[in-house]
């Protein structure tokens, strides 16, 4: 018999009754019923019940066990009494009568419970992550993550892609976030950067003739954490294709992503491949107030600016005259309720830093509220008809400069949908957002800058860059969105050296700057570069959605906390003087604020 186990804890069934077996694992729970003592023994594969009588040969050993101690038990498999069968457990029809028990590792008092999965302070959970990872939900999430990644790899290979690994030590790249810098010992005063993404390398692979590349790529960005983004590092399904249009990328990747979702969605409906809506960026900002719309929410935002030209509602009329816009957010059925809902929404908007939300509430076909009263009966009737509102609906209004009104309207759309229970939480709605603007105006720097990926191909190519207002140029840039989360981003790349230089000149960089910063890519484009494009899908966000988790720390093995600290390994930590000297670095402490 094997020293530790003949069977895994989760694989014993009624077919094993009568066999003598050996199992090893952690003590999940212990229950003392007077003349009998039970323990639930847990390993990676499941759980099995162990039982011993008070006068049994191993009672003293089992009685002394603390929760999470590691033990090997040998005994006979017996059938449980009918009333004791646990139908929710794969091993629920049997138990092991212990004949021998050996404690392999006794556990100290636990700093957090494993069984029961009670809420516990995050700092304790992260400091004792090895215990936290024993918890059922988190353990299952990590296993599911590995299966999702394995499934992604298989589907990418089936689609004709080959996995290539790109460097981790590289040069700084303008991906929109701070780099993690790595000092060079050999080259004093110079630094490598950890890759924010394999962007340039995967383009170079296309120039090198590899045609279809992918990898599950680690990416590093020194940015502040949030619920859908971990500090430090994350993983993406990175890919690139040669001789393709953006439609080719969409048609190739829709089946991959849709099928991954379908396999791991636990029966929840998923937008099928071939039917992902393709929504222009400008339309998304108008209808949803976001370039990451949650399509499970049926509410659509409408521009109603024209309705308030010369309106009797003076606040909106003056805003419109000054160039502001008015956006309407319907609230189906809200008019039948109390005014409190409308007041609460208004207070919520103020709490978000806005001046508030105007509203009209319709009760039994009669519009009410200050806007309806001052806008005028006929004008209000036209507005209600244009919006298609019912006799007991409501509508909120967001006013301001276009970007400000769009953002408030988008946030209000989400909140109204949540408050009224309109969002179907048990489905996955996927779409593409397309035709992103290539440039945007930076109010702080008072100049134009890239809106997204600077390596994207502008629609119209070099001709557009030479003859068009930069702020009107769109890019062959696209995002994939699921349930309000951006889960992938990509583009057709700008592989023309002339167009590349011109694109960067419009944001204030010279040809020499381009050669200095992106010399490898720029040189490569001089020697025959195929049209190419691709995307990167966020592995962490996809796993988070499929696990139904609310935070990326619930699907990540060893995450940092909100202050970018690894409490388990005590990182970051100071370097000793010898290390600093070898790296030619002197630490300059920040000055205390006065």
UniProtKB/TrEMBL annotation:
Assembly mode: Homodimer.
Record protein name field: Aspartate--tRNA(Asp/Asn) ligase
Organism: Sphingobium wenxiniae (strain DSM 21828 / CGMCC 1.7748 / JZ-1)
Gene for this chain: aspS
Compartment(s): Cytoplasm
Site (Important for tRNA non-discrimination) residue list: 33
Taxonomic placement: Bacteria, Pseudomonadati, Pseudomonadota, Alphaproteobacteria, Sphingomonadales
Example GO biological process: aspartyl-tRNA aminoacylation
Family matches, as Pfam families: GAD, tRNA-synt_2, tRNA_anti-codon
Described function: Aspartyl-tRNA synthetase with relaxed tRNA specificity since it is able to aspartylate not only its cognate tRNA(Asp) but also tRNA(Asn). Reaction proceeds in two steps: L-aspartate is first activated by ATP to form Asp-AMP and then transferred to the acceptor end of tRNA(Asp/Asn).
């Amino acid at each position: 018999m094997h020293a530790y186990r003949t069977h895994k804890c989760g694989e014993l069934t009624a077919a094993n009754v009568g066999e003598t077996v050996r199992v090893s694992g952690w003590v999940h729970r212990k229950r003392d019923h007077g003349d009998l003592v039970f323990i639930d023994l847990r390993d990676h594969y499941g759980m099995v019940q162990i039982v011993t009588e008070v006068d049994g040969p191993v009672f003293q050993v089992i009685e002394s066990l603390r929760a999470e101690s590691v033990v090997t038990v040998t005994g006979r498999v017996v059938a449980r009494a009918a009333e004791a069968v646990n139908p929710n457990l794969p091993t629920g029809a049997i138990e092991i009568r212990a004949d021998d028990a050996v404690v392999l590792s006794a556990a100290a008092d636990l700093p957090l419970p494993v069984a029961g999965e009670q809420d516990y302070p995050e700092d304790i959970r992260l400091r004792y992550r090895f215990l936290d990872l024993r918890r059922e939900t988190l353990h299952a999430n990590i296993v599911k993550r590995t299966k999702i990644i394995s499934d992604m790899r298989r589907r990418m290979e089936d689609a004709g892609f080959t996995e290539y690994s790109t460097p981790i030590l590289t040069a700084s790249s303008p991906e929109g976030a701070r780099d993690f810098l790595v000092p060079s010992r050999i080259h004093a005063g110079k630094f490598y950067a950890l890759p924010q993404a394999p962007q340039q390398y995967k383009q170079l692979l296309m120039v090198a003739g590899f045609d279809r590349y992918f990898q599950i790529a680690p990416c590093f960005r020194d940015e502040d954490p949030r619920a859908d983004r971990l500090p430090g590092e994350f993983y993406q399904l990175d890919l690139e294709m040669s001789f393709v249009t953006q439609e080719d990328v969409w048609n190739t990747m829709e089946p991959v992503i849709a099928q991954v979702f379908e396999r791991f969605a636990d029966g929840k409906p998923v937008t099928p491949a071939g039917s992902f809506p393709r929504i222009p960026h400008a339309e998304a900002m108008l209808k949803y107030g976001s370039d990451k719309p949650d399509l499970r929410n049926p509410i659509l935002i409408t521009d109603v600016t024209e309705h308030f030209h010369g309106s009797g509602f003076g606040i909106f009329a003056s805003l419109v005259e000054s160039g502001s816009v008015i956006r309407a957010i319907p609230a189906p059925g809200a008019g039948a309720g109390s005014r409190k809902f409308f007041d609460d929404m208004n207070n919520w908007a103020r709490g978000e830093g806005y001046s508030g939300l105007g509203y009209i509430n319709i009760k039994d076909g009669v519009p009410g509220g200050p806007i309806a009263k001052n806008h005028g009966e006929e004008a209000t009737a036209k507005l209600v008809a244009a919006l298609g509102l019912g006799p007991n609906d409501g509508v909120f209004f967001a006013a301001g400069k276009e970007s400000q009104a769009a953002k408030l309207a988008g946030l209000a759309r989400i909140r109204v949908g949540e408050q009224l229970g309109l969002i179907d939480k048990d489905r996955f709605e996927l779409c593409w957002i397309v035709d992103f603007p290539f440039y945007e105006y930076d109010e702080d720097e008072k100049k134009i800058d890239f809106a997204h990926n600077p390596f994207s191909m502008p629609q119209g190519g070099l001709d557009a860059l030479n003859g068009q207002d930069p702020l009107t140029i769109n890019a062959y840039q696209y995002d994939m969105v699921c349930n309000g989360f951006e889960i992938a981003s990509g583009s057709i790349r700008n592989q023309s050296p002339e167009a590349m230089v011109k694109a960067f000149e419009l944001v204030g960089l010279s040809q020499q700057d381009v050669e200095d910063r992106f010399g490898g890519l720029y040189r490569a484009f001089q020697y025959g570069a195929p049209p190419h494009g691709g995307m990167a899908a966020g592995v962490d966000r996809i796993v988070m959605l499929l696990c139904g988790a609310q935070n990326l720390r619930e699907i990540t093995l060893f995450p940092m906390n909100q202050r970018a600290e690894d409490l388990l390994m005590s990182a970051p930590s100071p370097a000793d003087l010898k290390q600093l000297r070898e790296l030619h670095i002197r630490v300059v402490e920040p000055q205390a604020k006065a």
